[in-house]
Design brief:
rod-shaped, microtubule binding, PRC1 regulator, MAP65_Ase1_PRC1, single chain, mainly alpha
């Protein structure tokens, strides 16, 4: 079809040149110019398409290289493109795969960052060491799953210690009120006065809190024993002094 179009155009040009009366020698020159124009146009079109092909092949090579890196980072099996597909289809498939895997990489890194922020908060409260994971590498799905389960365990431990802290704190405050004791150490003030959410729930703090409660309960038990002894002596003295019941009852309120 292209040859037919070219022949028709050349025939039309010859007719025009004959009608004009252009000599044979000039007609040959003009035909040569037409040939050069056509050849130049075709050469330019071929060069453009060759350039497109080279760009596609270069893109395929770059995508393959990037895919190899992403597969290693994401700890996935190497991606195998369909070798029988065309260059255009292969380039599209590889480029699409790169975009998908880059999104997976971003998602994993973002989740790792969020988990590490949660980990830091829990470590500050529980006074524990952070989860061991390389912040610079792309975490595997298994590592992210282990990290999530680790944080779930820490969260449960935090709630358990929080409940234990609140229960002991309530008993400590009650003992202090009964003993008319004012918090006189920084630890006691932290326990009684500080916001419960700000209290460090370390094992040492929980143990110190339990020890404080035991000390207060021991003082209360001692005071109660002294009170029992004093009441016994008062009753004995009332009996010896024959103090009237009315006077005993008026004192009983104390």
């Amino acid at each position: 079809e292209a040859v037919s179009c070219l022949n028709r155009a050349l025939a039309a040009l010859r007719d025009i040149w004959e009608e004009i009366g252009i000599p044979e020698e000039q007609r040959l020159e003009r035909t040569d110019v037409v040939k050069k124009h056509i050849k130049s146009l075709l050469d330019m079109m071929v060069a453009e398409e060759e350039s497109l092909k080279e760009r596609l092949l270069k893109s395929i090579a770059l995508c393959r290289k990037e895919l190899d890196t992403l597969c290693r980072e994401l700890q996935l099996d190497p991606f195998e493109a369909e070798e029988e597909s065309t260059i255009l289809q292969m380039e599209k498939d590889l480029r699409t795969r790169v975009e998908v895997m880059l999104k997976q990489k971003r998602d994993r890194k973002q989740e790792l960052k969020a988990l590490q922020e949660q980990d830091r908060d829990l470590c500050d409260i529980l006074c524990t060491s952070p989860f061991g994971i390389d912040s610079n590498a792309v975490p595997s799905l298994e590592e992210l799953d282990r990290y999530r389960r680790h944080l779930a365990s820490l969260t449960a431990e935090k709630e358990r210690r929080r409940e234990e802290f609140v229960g002991i704190k309530r008993q400590v405050i009650l003992c202090m009120e009964e003993l008319d004791h004012t918090p006189d150490t920084s630890f006691e003030r932290d326990v009684v006065c500080e916001d419960e959410e700000a209290f460090c729930l370390s094992t040492d703090n929980i143990a110190a809190l339990q020890n404080l409660l035991q000390q207060l309960e021991a003082r209360r038990s001692l005071n109660e024993a002294v009170c029992v002894e004093l009441r016994s002596r008062i009753i004995a003295l009332w009996e010896r002094l024959q103090v009237p019941a009315e006077e005993r009852e008026s004192f009983a309120v104390h």
